[in-house]
Amino acid sequence: MQGVLSEALAVAFRLALPPTLTVAGRTDAGVHARGQVAHVDVPSGMWASAASVAMRRLNRVLPADVRVRAISVAPAGFDARFSALWRRYSYRVCDGAVCADPLRRHDTLWHRLPVDPQLMNQAAAACLGTHDFAAFCRRRLGASTVRELQRLDWHRDETGVVVAAVIADAFCHNMVRALVGALLAVGDGRKPASWPAAMLAAAVRDPAVTVAPPHPLCLEQVGYPADEDLKARASLTRRGRSAG
Q: What is the DSSP string of 162-196?
């Protein structure tokens, strides 16, 4: 009886306190993630018994649009969110009938006007660096809107689709989509190339900045420091967020 009771209590404990999953990027609804990274703390004994079959069993119960591609014990001090140095996103825009592939409609924006990637790159260059991106973010109480935008540029791929590569240490809510919306307005001639930088300097959300749709945005990759620097990076990031 005692053994049965102990097992029942253990099961109840696991049900009451399920493991908490921490992800590297908390994307907006409708955004894709090809390179998401996550961590979860589980008892070492539980992992030892499940390690060889964990990925197969997880993929068996996950929906068809979610797949685990690798799973392992994390290095000491690793935090999927706070240890990250940068996140890289892509955004796909089709601005002509030639590149309008119906099979890519779920990850590509069909833009009604042709765009000039060179103009968009000119406007984007002025937004690089560390700034207060309040003009391009949905504010959250107590959260900082200062971010380091490390890369934002556009090119046409072999099919004619215009693709953005966006890298930052982290992103505010709606930040990438708002930047894309502003740059599309420059690329199709509705706004001058100086407009996004002026909005950035104002540091005030402008209703003229349209937030682009979520489905063409994809988290492609997350970068981390060397194993021995993971804990220090996580501590530094947490202090920075608290200060904001």
A: EEEEEEES---TTHHHHHHHHHHHHHTTSS-TTHH
